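pasting for ref
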Amino acid sequence: MSSLPVVAVLGRPNVGKSTLVNRIVRRKAAVVDELPGVTRDRREFEAEWNGRRFLLVDTGGWELNPGEELTAGIRSQAEAAVSAADVVIFVADATTEVTDDDQGVARLLLRSAIPFLLVANKVDSPKRDLDTDHLWTLGLGEAHPLSALHGRGTGDFLDSLIELLPPEEEIEETQYVASLAVMGRPNVGKSTLLNKLAGEERVLVSEVPGTTRDPINLIVNLDGEPFEIIDTAGIKRRTKIKDDVEFYSTLRAKETLRSADVALLLIDGQRGATHQEQRLAEEIEKSGTGLIVLLNKWDDVDEEQRLHTEDSVADRLAFVSWAPVLRMSAKTGARIHRLPKTVRAVLETRRNRVPTTELNKLIRKWQEAHPPPVRKGRRARIIYATQAETEPPTFVLFVRGGDLGPDYLRFLENRIREQYDFTGTPVRIRTRRRHSAREIEDVKS
């Protein structure tokens, strides 16, 4: 099976790379902000123009002399994207003079011998087309004037891009790949885990909380089976969000969670489960995504800390006690080999289906032994039950009389879990009212 051609977007900070990426993929996929350095890791998006598909890679801002470890990491990530690309889009700012960083990117491209297109961004009107003359000093030929923000000139630019792509090959339909969302508060080790699973420094790792801004997608082979691993930004409470970047990062993390098959919730073994992990587990359960709890940094904690962490998980995450708990170290890789087997088990339980006949026999048995409580003078009665969906398993109860109430629904969920294996997945129970003939007559009258 051949892969899509790879197009890397390169340039110094704050020239509009992510804005151009969003314009090409026709959606707000990448976080955009006036603050330089918002994009830090490589992000990949599938794009298409005039029937030709390609993989678009957004990179962080390239700097000639990165002053900090984090900015040096951003530069290395950008250069790694270039080395793996078939074509490079070099984005320059038409409204400013050529900088040393621009010259550095130009030298990098001339040494690489990779086909490239020079883009003069922020050319918002025909009157500004001549403002791109200073970009000739880069030695890369004529620049394509466009406005990524307004879309001006992007059609002609994309036509030129398609001409540089390698010859099109037939691409076979790929098999479905399960997605695993790596969740956790900032600086708990999510990116370290992804790099360990990928076998390379694919995502920036820093002691600075919030290094990851966008979800990072990677296809990783675990025990001979491909999985899509998604490293997400830490989800923050609304009161803790300081700016638009954090707001959109949190929003994208929640969107990723809703579309994932299984969430890997990382908890710092040295601190245990806090209110933040409790809130994340609530988000995961609400989304219907499978859940595996990972106690990270387990090799660095003593016996007393381990007992504290285990007690905190049992206490704060009691409502998701159905989730498997693995103890491991993302940094050293200790006990990570247990993860693929656990993931496959959770994926299997999410697809489990209970036969309708069996389910109704059990519901009648449980209802006779423990009838629903009387509410507002009426006792509900379940007359029929069925499993309507899988992933997550969803049961529908048809009820007459009063309401069952959340306590009785929890009772039924616990009985279902005791009877069938739904380890690692939320179980949803919905109710539908069935009116008796007498109730229908009362409504008519």
